[in-house]
Design goal:
Blueprint: E1 2-6, E2 9-11, E3 17-24, E4 33-38, E5 45-50, E6 57-59, E7 67-72, E8 77-82, E9 91-97, E10 102-103, E11 107-111
Parallel strand pairs: 2-11
Antiparallel strand pairs: 1-3, 3-8, 4-5, 4-9, 5-6, 7-8, 9-10, 9-11
Length: 113
């Protein structure tokens, strides 16, 4: 199982980023996927979840209405569209396959003017 995140970077408050997670080594379309984040000095936080076919999603309260999780099973990729970013969204973002507890290496998102 390999999960590789990309798309992080530095963005100004109010800006947008789209994170991608390329999955390999397993049948991607059979598994629910998640995005977590961890900010310095804080516990890991569940950001969003998506079902295996993409028909069901859920979000943490802090990102509802601003972030959207989606997936393309033909491309073995899960996405996190982040809009109206705030300083408190600064964190390392991780792509996770909960079954088996597989994590990517993370991608840094920094929101700052």
């Amino acid at each position: 199982v390999q999960l590789v995140e990309s798309g992080g970077g530095l963005v100004q408050p109010g800006g947008s980023l789209r994170l991608s997670c390329a999955a390999s080594g397993f049948t991607f379309s059979s598994y629910n996927m998640r995005w977590y984040r961890q900010a310095p000095g804080k516990e890991r936080e569940l950001v969003a979840r998506i079902s295996s076919a993409g028909g069901s999603t859920s979000y943490g309260d802090s990102v509802k209405g601003r972030f959207t999780i989606s997936r393309d099973n033909a491309k073995n990729t899960v996405y996190l569209q982040m809009n109206n970013l705030k300083a408190e969204d600064t964190a390392v973002y991780y792509c996770v396959r909960a079954t088996g507890n597989y994590w990517g290496q993370g991608t840094q998102v920094t929101v700052s003017s």
